[in-house]
């Protein structure tokens, strides 16, 4: 079972770094107005929600994905909105048709290094 207190405690450093880098590079990342964004490896959804509200508030929709069903369940219970939601996805597999060619931007922090298949 997912322990959010333990996760948040161990994830604070990653969240701090991710927000720092997005803030630092937001002027050169050409975020499209009314864009759709996919966050790969969103974990409990807290960082995805924070990015959505603070860094790219003009984003139309943001979807967070993670391999952990417990994380996604928690994210949807605590951070989902009409413009942002979360879905279970193993990014090492085939991308589902409903997610193909749908996003203007894809972001990921501290997740891709866990993929065994890097092609």
Automatic annotation (TrEMBL):
Family matches, as CDD domains: AdoMet_MTases
Methyltransferase domain span: 37-115
InterPro entries: Methyltransf_25 (IPR041698), SAM-dependent_MTases_sf (IPR029063)
Keywords, sorted A to Z: Methyltransferase, Transferase
Family matches, as Pfam families: Methyltransf_25
PANTHER family membership: TRANS-ACONITATE 2-METHYLTRANSFERASE, TRANS-ACONITATE 2-METHYLTRANSFERASE-RELATED
Protein's name according to its UniProt entry: Methyltransferase domain-containing protein
């Amino acid at each position: 079972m997912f322990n959010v207190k333990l996760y948040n405690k161990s994830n604070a450093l990653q969240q701090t770094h991710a927000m720092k880098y997005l803030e630092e590079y937001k002027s050169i990342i050409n975020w499209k107005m009314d864009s759709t964004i996919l966050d790969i490896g969103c974990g409990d959804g807290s960082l995805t929600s924070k990015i959505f509200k603070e860094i790219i508030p003009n984003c139309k929709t943001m979807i967070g994905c993670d391999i952990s069903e417990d994380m996604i369940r928690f994210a949807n219970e605590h951070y989902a909105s009409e413009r942002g939601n979360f879905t279970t996805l193993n990014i090492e597999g085939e991308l589902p048709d409903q997610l193909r060619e749908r996003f203007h931007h894809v972001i990921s922090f501290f997740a891709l290094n866990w993929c065994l298949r890097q092609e």
